[in-house]
Amino acid sequence: MPELPEVETVRRGLTNLVEGAKIKRVDVPYPKVVTSDLKLFQKDLTGATIDRIDRRGKYLLFRLSNDQTMVSHLRMEGQYSVEPEGAALHKHTEVAFHLVDDRQLFYNDTRRFGRMTLVPTGKELHDVSGLKDLGPEPTEDALTLDYMKEIFHKSHRVVKTFLLDQSNIAGLGNIYADEVLWMTRIHPETTTDKISTRKLGELRENIIKEISRATEHHGTTVHSFSNIFGETGHFQNELQVYGRAKLPCLRCGTTLRKIKVGQRGTTFCPKCQIKK
DNA sequence: GTGAGTGTTTCGCT
DNA sequence: TAGCGAAACACTCA
């Protein structure tokens, strides 16, 4: 589930709980989660201190004292939890970081899609595919209208799919893509080069505003997502279209429709969002 | 019990 | 090269 606001919420929680903590030992009950060399992963993390936790798009970057960075992507259902030393592994714990202060940091992932890798700090952009091709963060400064015009108008892709492509804009997922298209009154199957510059300006504003609002609300909880404190976000109460198929549009009352766009469930209003 | 659907990314094919 | 569809896996719901 995690999109940018959820990952940012996790980052803040982890920063509060484990920034400055030193790692004593690393157990990896599900070795497939680590895509770099497993032996080196365990060896290099042992004795390292977590100096800081950064985020880029939906990726978490654990900056370690030994000039290594652990890159972690939660994919669908990855979660971190902090437990006292000795606490039993969860059913889906894939990695257990034992800390010297008698706590342990678990990485749990029921669907086993999440991945982590250890790379030298500074090399992560080069070594981690996906991270190196990431588009700008959806912020006022990074996501300029000039950039939007350039990428949207030179492509002929369907806008919903285009927004989900992290190399265009980092951090949008299925939920917020549906939300911002509804807010901007753009049909999800509109091709990107057909969207006027004026509309792109509105879309840009809505993306920045929506991601920022969702982050303030600690993200959206659809199924199993919870933040590091085991709390759930409450932005789902703010969603206008996602998960509301067959219910009336909150703007015009028309029944919202659900279709597939590029394999992804997509909810929209057939009256407000007309295809051009 | 069975089949469809689920938040993300990568990879291979055209 | 750009774009599309399938695959990775486990669980829930109809």
Largest sheet: 4 strands, antiparallel
- What's the N-to-C terminus distance? 30 Å
| Count of separate structural domains | 2
Spans of at least 5 consecutive residues whose pLDDT stays below 50 are none
Strand order of the largest sheet: 1-6-7-5
> Which shape, going by the Cα principal axes?
elongated
Q: Can you count the helices?
A: 7
Mean pLDDT: 91
- Report the CATH superfamily of the largest domain: MutM-like, N-terminal
Per CATH, the class of the largest domain reads Alpha Beta
SSE order, as H and E? Answer: HEHEEEEEEEHHHHHEE
CATH topology of the largest domain: N-terminal domain of MutM-like DNA repair proteins
Q: How many strand units?
A: 10
Structural class: alpha+beta
Helix content: 25-40%
- The whole-angstrom Rg is 20 Å
Named at the architecture level, the CATH assignment of the largest domain is Alpha-Beta Barrel
Cofactor: Zn(2+)
Protein name: Formamidopyrimidine-DNA glycosylase
Keywords: DNA damage, DNA repair, DNA-binding, Glycosidase, Hydrolase, Lyase, Metal-binding, Multifunctional enzyme, Zinc, Zinc-finger
Domain FPG-type: 240-274
